Amino acid sequence: DIQMTQSPSSLSASVGDTVTITCQASQGIINSLNWYQQKIGRAPKLLIHATSTLETGVPSRFSGSGSGTSFTLTISSLQPEDFATYFCQQYEGHPYTFGPGTKLDI
Amino acid sequence: QVQLVQSGAEVKRPGASVRVSCKASGYTFSNYAMHWVRQAPGQSPEWMGWINPATGKTGYSQKFQGRVTISRDTSASTAYMEVTNLTSEDSSLYYCARVPYGGRFDSWGQGTLVTVSS
């Protein structure tokens, strides 16, 4: 199985800050990497697919980059609604696997 | 709009089985794969398997092979996921998720809490 790691595991920031979350894959996954946001008591919400393609309706302050084994999610000008947990997920090989998550709080 | 509505919470004894349903609306059910993911409290999601509603073809994570069965009823636009021989480790929130292509989980059900307790 392809193992996914994320750093940091938690992050404190303020409204208006820019933050970066890193995701590493245990083997090359080309660009087969998605990012999700999850708020307490809710299902995950797809933000970015194929490393850098923003889902419809997702604000442009979210961006993704990377390839191979190293990927990043950047959120610029943090808004109050951005405080949540973020997961990366690879779909290059079965089983699809998710990272352990990064909790972003104020 | 796309909606996936799952069946309600379940409490089961160890060794029992549970079946969770996922009713789709707002799109053509047969045109999109349906995947199942579970998430234990405080943990990240864990992929379990998938079904092609048009053909009935399924695929499972090796971890769940033999203990999980995914099926569908196209006339009811509903997918099902059954887990047998439950243990306390199976206590989790179970989600269905639509996948248009690749591994892009673009719509999720609300989740079904399964609690396994003696």
Summarize the amount of helix of chain B as a percent range. Answer: under 10%
Radius of gyration of chain B: 13 Å
Shape of chain A: globular
Return the structural class of chain A. Answer: mainly beta
The number of strands of chain A is 11
Describe it.
The complex is a heterodimer of chains A (106) and B (118). With 106 residues, chain A is mainly beta. Chain A has no helices and eleven strands. In chain A, strand 4 and strand 5 form a beta hairpin. The mean pLDDT of chain A is 97. With 118 residues, chain B is mostly beta strands. In chain B, strands 2, 4, 5, 6, 9, 10 and 11 form a seven-stranded mixed sheet that branches. The chains are: A mainly beta (106), B mainly beta (118). Chains A and B meet through strand 5, strand 9 and strand 10 of A and loops of B.
Keywords:
heterodimer, A: 106 residues, mainly beta, 4-stranded antiparallel sheet, globular, B: 118 residues
In short:
The complex is a heterodimer of chains A (106) and B (118). Chain A is mainly β.
Write the layout of secondary structure elements.
The complex is a heterodimer of chains A (about 110) and B (about 120).
Chain A: E1 4-7, E2 10-12, E3 19-25, E4 33-38, E5 45-49, E6 53-54, E7 62-67, E8 70-75, E9 85-90, E10 97-98, E11 102-105
Parallel strand pairs in A: 2-11
Antiparallel strand pairs in A: 1-3, 3-8, 4-5, 4-9, 5-6, 7-8, 9-10, 9-11
Chain B: E1 3-6, E2 10-12, E3 18-25, E4 33-39, E5 46-51, E6 58-60, E7 68-73, E8 78-83, E9 92-99, E10 107-108, E11 112-116
